[in-house]
UniProtKB/TrEMBL annotation:
InterPro entries tied to this protein: EpsG-like
Coiled-coil region(s): none
Keyword vocabulary terms for this entry: Membrane, Transmembrane, Transmembrane helix
Membrane keyword on record: yes
Name the record gives this protein: EpsG family protein
Domain of life: Bacteria
Membrane-spanning residues: 6-22, 29-46, 78-96, 117-136, 172-194
Length: 209
């Protein structure tokens, strides 16, 4: 299914690594992704914010479309720091969500095992996305790959919220924290880069009013 999805959008191939995740090699994967992301980030910064050889390889082999290939020919300044911050915050919300879901898993009346499997999968998907760090240095356009898992994260948040007892203090605090973080991300994704133009278009050009 991953390879079929890959024919529709190249970002699907990022999830191939999940096939190889097993309990006995998770620690190796963690170290591998951290070291690789760190090494490529340093190398990219040294190389004038361009990933060495990668753009040329993509162009010569015609692996990807010209549109995506052009991303590798760009050179960003310090905007990548915002994307690093955003992704780190998102990851910590998933870590918190995973821990709470594990703690409250018995509160689910059914599908306990499926919910936990899904939560664990979302955790690893988000963790694997750290490999995008060096690509953000080249251009923020690679953030689109991170955005592709936003709704998957929302489902994990919703499951975690359901794991609390109704109207409990912990549930209210968790939901407020998630909402505040989403508002923070919304600001840096929609309002800050476009000076409110997108919001203005939504309110002025719609089918409802």
């Amino acid at each position: 299914f991953l390879f079929i999805a890959g024919t529709i959008h190249y970002s699907a191939f990022l999830y191939v690594v999940l096939i190889f995740i097993k309990n006995n090699n998770k620690q190796k994967l963690v170290k591998g992704i951290i070291y690789l992301a760190f090494f490529l980030s340093i190398l990219t910064i040294i190389n004038n914010n361009k990933i060495p050889f990668l753009s040329q390889i993509m162009t010569d082999t015609e692996i990807i479309s010209d549109k995506i290939s052009n991303w590798f020919n760009n050179s960003a300044r310090f905007g990548f720091l915002i994307k690093w911050l955003e992704q780190t915050i998102v990851f910590f919300t998933i870590v918190l969500t995973k821990r709470i879901t594990e703690k409250n898993i018995k509160n689910f009346k059914k599908n306990n095992e499926k919910i936990m499997i899904y939560c664990d999968a979302i955790y690893w998907i988000n963790f694997c996305m750290f490999i995008l760090f060096p690509f953000y240095i080249v251009t923020a356009s690679f953030w689109r790959l991170m955005r592709s898992i936003v709704f998957l994260n929302y489902i994990a948040y919703a499951n975690c919220s359901d794991s609390f007892y109704n109207k409990s203090k912990e549930k209210i605090m968790y939901n407020i924290a998630i909402i505040l973080i989403l508002i923070f991300l919304f600001f840096f994704e929609i309002i800050y880069p476009y000076n409110g133009v997108i919001l203005k278009n939504i309110f002025e050009y719609n089918l409802f009013f």
